[in-house]
Specification:
The protein is of the alpha/beta class. Helices cover 37% and strands 16% of the residues.
């Protein structure tokens, strides 16, 4: 056996306003995640879901009300991620909206830094001052970098959870006007879809891994909206012009070859908007490549 993968569901829909992403963990499980990983020689332990109230249960859905619950869920995700890594397990977190990464990334970096590969159509780098919507899933990366609501910045341990020079964004194509400025000034390595078109995914990945190759481990935070909606239609905030399936799979195959992967997020699957669970099935196929499935 290759080791133990702990599957952790985070059915969060509080970081944005659309219903459905809370059902993402169920969809991925139904698509056969555990069986696929077991077929590659891994042991899996499904730890179930973190208990999170849904939007529909709240009498007041204002941000001030939701932040309390988001923080509570992220604290739990932090503790589970930390515990898994301390036991030598690989946590695979199933979302839910991307605000859950505030806890997941924090937890897996508790003992020390790791490289963060953020695959997403969006920058998730807004702050309360720049956001047009106030949605926390659009601020999650900036919070991990130490900016924004301090009650979320200080989840688990105080202050930033990652350094900008240890962060690489891939597949970005949909940014708010002021968010563009924040991201350019952030110190993170950012590869937009134009970069991928011009340079090719192979070169982009070579440069990306060059930026974080000195670190002992890697966390992948995969927002399924990074993939083009024609291939992954069931996501919370679809954006046209995204990664092809093969480009996404090359990311997974290349990360697998580093043998540094320590933890994974799979976020923003919305089964309500999907076709025959296509997006969850795509996610499971990508996870198989990430954990070592090869063509030959």
């Amino acid at each position: 056996m290759k080791g133990l993968i702990r599957i952790i569901g985070i059915p969060m829909d509080l970081g944005q306003r659309h219903r459905g992403v809370d059902m993402g963990p169920v969809a991925i499980r139904y698509a056969g995640l555990a069986q696929s990983l077991q077929g590659l020689g891994y042991q899996t332990w499904d730890a179930g879901n973190i208990n999170i109230p849904g939007h529909y249960t709240l009498p007041d859905t204002r941000l001030s009300e939701r932040i309390i619950l988001i923080r509570r869920a992220c604290c739990r995700a932090y503790a589970l991620g930390r515990d898994a890594r301390e036991k030598g397990e690989i946590p695979v977190f199933l979302g839910g909206d991307h605000s859950a990464s505030i806890g997941t990334v924090g937890g897996v970096t508790h003992a020390g830094p790791c490289g963060l590969i953020w695959v997403d159509a969006h920058g998730d780098s807004n702050t309360p001052e720049t956001s047009n919507t106030g949605n926390i899933h659009g601020m999650s990366l900036s919070i991990l970098l130490g900016k924004g609501q301090q009650e979320l910045v200080n989840v688990g341990r105080r202050g930033p959870k990652v350094l900008p020079e240890n962060v690489v964004l891939l597949g970005v194509r949909d940014l708010d006007r002021e968010e563009k400025i924040l991201l350019k000034d952030s110190g993170c390595s950012v590869y937009t879809m134009r970069d991928i078109d011009e340079l090719g995914m192979h070169r982009v990945l070579r440069e990306a891994l060059g930026a974080i190759g000195h670190l002992p481990s890697i966390h992948l935070s995969l927002d399924m909206d990074a993939i083009d909606p024609r291939e992954a239609p069931g996501v919370g905030t679809p954006s046209p012009g995204g990664l092809t399936y093969r480009e996404a799979q090359l990311i997974m195959e290349t990360l697998a070859e580093t043998e540094k992967l320590q933890s994974v997020d799979v976020m923003e699957i919305n089964p309500i908007l999907d076709h025959c669970n296509q997006t969850a099935q795509t996610a499971v196929s990508l996870m198989a490549s990430l954990f070592g499935k090869t063509i030959l």
